[in-house]
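Quick check before the chapter quiz. The format below is the same one you will see on the exam, so make sure you can read both the input and the output lines.
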Amino acid sequence: MFKDQIISRLKELTGHNSIIITTRGNAAIKAVLSAVKEKLLIPEEGGWLTYKKADNYSEVKCDDAVINLRDLEQKLQTKEYGAFLYQNPGGYFAEQPMVEIYALCRRFGCLVILDVSGSLGTELCDGRYADVSVGSFGEWKLVEAHVGGFISCKDSKLSEQLRPALLADEDSLKIILEKLEWLDKRILFLSEKRKKILKDLQDFKIVHPDDLGFVVVIKYGAEKEKEQILTYCQKEQLPWTECPRYIRLNKKAVSIEVKRLVG
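Here is the expected output.
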């Protein structure tokens, strides 16, 4: 019962008709990658830790977590790669040129796998520009059920080839459905929190402040700047992490983890 409702909602959100509900987001990624026989492309930053567990991959250059299209094209021209796996927004803060990425990959016969854990329910989750979408419902995700993930496929023939660990527990499925129903309100809550942070810290070096995102990444030079940012986080009771970090930015920065907030 819950499964069918989840699938129906995910079809709406992803624009794909083939949906598989998995035990975890990582299980979804691993299942899709197991079907890729050639080398994999991933971003050099702004990705997810599981990307780097692939057997054979190369990294595409990024400009503050935004995919560098020129480098992507150069790598695709070698015809060594069977798939490109990336996240939109990159690192939860950098909007990707997904239309251009998809066009390039199609030209060179490269499968596009889009991680939408940080964009489900927004305009950045657009199945027109992905052959496969993957997502997590785990901790600190937009749909924070602490369990489960999914795969959506544009082509049903591809989904039939996948053998992920499936989620069948009714209690878990019920929680996922409830969190999906709450998704619009959660996005609004996080967006308002982020908007306030951007205003309060507008004099600092915020990376991609105008992009849709659910963290705020701020570069710093001197330690004094970092201390000022952390003092603000402490005052406002905001969780933060320090960069360089592959899943955010490979430069000195503080990432204010808006997506961890509960409202």
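If your answer matched, good. Helices lie at 2-14, 25-34, 69-76, 98-107, 156-161, 170-181, 183-200, 223-236.
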